[in-house]
């Protein structure tokens, strides 16, 4: 069927884009620019896009096919081309220079602190904050979404954004800052707004997670905007991350008691569950050493004081993402690893075929030596580590 023109086109556009009428949007032909993406792996920007929230479709206008080089773009988000011949204006309820349309990790009613940083916050920070003059910047809107499954269509019925006190909402809104936050969920669909975007950025840009300058600027930005001041001096204190789910340290309290008695040094367990984003970052300012089994909570190492030591620990023969995690954590300062080499201290979990969830009893003597070395580094005796 050929494209509709004239009065028929006007009637069709009126039907799919109900005019609730606050501003007039000049709907010029759309253009596409492709970038290296983080997630999805191709990030595409389309100009002159209108989201009709009532049907969940992003409309654009082009005589040419634009999406063939955009990877998973039209698999995840629903887009439709409506070439404009005679209609040049659309009624908009909201209008922005840039729309950031991206995905967050949400599964089984929760999220993951690692993925929120790695897949969302850091890429958005690069896209929105780095190199921008905030006082003269364009108008923006942030439009997070959740996939039904990996790189499949978004789930408009997701409950992910319903509670503002959840850390995954706090971290996502943190980068949005002063700009409007419009999650793609049923609440937006019920409003039925037309959201008009001069540029729609689908996905997030590729990031170098080993770039120390970039990573440290992100940490500085987070602390400044949370109004958290890094102390000039932190007395020796060791934090051990307590996990209640998979990959537990079964003798974590014994480790604390041993450190207090044998070294001696102040030590405590820290449990991030139930903490807000700001509370987690603030808590890091009191530690000179933070140790934990490979897991999301270790991302808080990014927010430790500059000379503090981060220790990533690993279960027995577990094939985890140690190297990838370690590359990120090394960018902020001193870093160590410990891997359980004792099979008798290994506690597998039934059904864990890939050995990604085992619990561990940490060897006391090895841990004592590890912490003693870390405290030496943190005290400034080993300046090469900083």
Automatic annotation (TrEMBL):
Residues 1-21 form the signal peptide. The keyword Glycoprotein applies. GO terms for molecular function: glycosyltransferase activity. Residues 113-310 form the Glycosyltransferase 61 catalytic domain. Keywords: Glycoprotein, Glycosyltransferase, Signal, Transferase. InterPro entries: Glyco_transf_61_cat (IPR049625), Glycosyltransferase_61 (IPR007657). This is Glycosyltransferase 61 catalytic domain-containing protein. It comes from Ridgeia piscesae.
């Amino acid at each position: 069927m050929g494209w509709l023109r004239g009065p028929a086109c006007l009637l069709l556009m009126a039907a799919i884009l109900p005019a609730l009428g606050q501003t007039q949007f000049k709907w010029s032909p759309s253009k596409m620019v492709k970038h290296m993406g983080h997630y999805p792996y191709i990030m595409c920007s389309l100009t002159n896009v209108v989201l009709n929230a009532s049907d969940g479709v992003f409309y654009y206008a082009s005589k040419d096919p634009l999406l063939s080089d955009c990877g998973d773009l039209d698999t995840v988000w629903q887009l439709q081309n409506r070439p404009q011949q005679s209609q040049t204006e659309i009624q908009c309820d909201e209008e922005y220079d840039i729309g950031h349309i991206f995905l967050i990790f949400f599964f089984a009613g929760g999220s993951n602190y690692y993925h929120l940083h790695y897949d969302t916050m850091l890429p958005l920070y690069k896209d929105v904050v780095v190199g921008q003059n905030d006082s003269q910047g364009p108008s923006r809107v942030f439009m997070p979404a959740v996939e039904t499954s990996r790189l499949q269509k978004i789930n408009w019925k997701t409950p992910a954004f319903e509670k503002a006190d959840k850390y995954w909402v706090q971290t996502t809104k943190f980068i949005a800052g002063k700009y409007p936050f419009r999650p793609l969920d049923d609440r937006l669909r019920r409003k039925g707004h037309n959201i008009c975007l001069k540029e729609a950025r689908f996905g997030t840009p590729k990031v170098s997670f080993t770039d120390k300058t970039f990573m440290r600027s992100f940490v500085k930005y987070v602390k400044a905007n949370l109004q958290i001041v890094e102390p000039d001096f932190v007395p020796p204190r060791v934090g051990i991350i307590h996990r209640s789910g998979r990959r537990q340290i079964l003798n974590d309290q014994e480790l604390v008691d041993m450190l207090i008695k044998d070294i001696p040094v102040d030590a405590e367990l820290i449990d991030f569950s139930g903490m807000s984003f700001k509370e987690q970052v603030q808590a890091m300012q009191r530690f000179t050493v933070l140790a934990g089994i490979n897991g999301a909570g270790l991302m808080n190492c990014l927010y430790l004081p500059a000379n503090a030591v981060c220790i990533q620990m690993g279960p027995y023969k577990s094939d985890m993402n140690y190297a990838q995690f370690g590359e990120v954590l090394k960018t902020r300062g001193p870093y160590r690893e410990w891997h359980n080499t004792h099979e008798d201290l290994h506690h597998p979990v039934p059904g864990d075929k890939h050995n990604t969830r085992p619990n561990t009893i940490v060897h006391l003597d090895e841990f004592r030596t590890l912490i003693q070395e870390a405290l030496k580094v943190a005290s400034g005796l080993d300046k090469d580590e900083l």
